[in-house]
Amino acid sequence: QVQLVESGGGLVQPGGSLRLSCQASKTTFTGSTMYWFRQRPGKQREFVASITTDNDATLAHDVKDRFAVSRNNANTTVYLQMNSLKPEDTAAYYCNRDLRDWGQGTQVTVSS
What we know:
Elements: E1 4-7, E2 10-12, E3 18-24, H1 26-29, E4 34-39, E5 46-51, E6 57-59, E7 67-72, E8 77-82, E9 91-97, E10 101-102, E11 106-110
């Protein structure tokens, strides 16, 4: 059974930072491209970042100067480092494997 478990969300002030983690089972992680999506209030789920098994990373245009995606194959975890957070980054953030399997999401709220 595919299992993706996100953590690291929370409330942060504008300009602050958070690091999200998504831990996967080894069989889920190995050989998979991992993604981060987010769903802002009242909006459709949207792409944020992806990283291949070769560490080829892609970031959405509106976050590429502030966010970074990385993966640790040893502990089967993918990370999303979010810096200079803005209120418009407020969303539920979801981990995804190969555009098929989803985690349960973690809430990020950026507010003063």
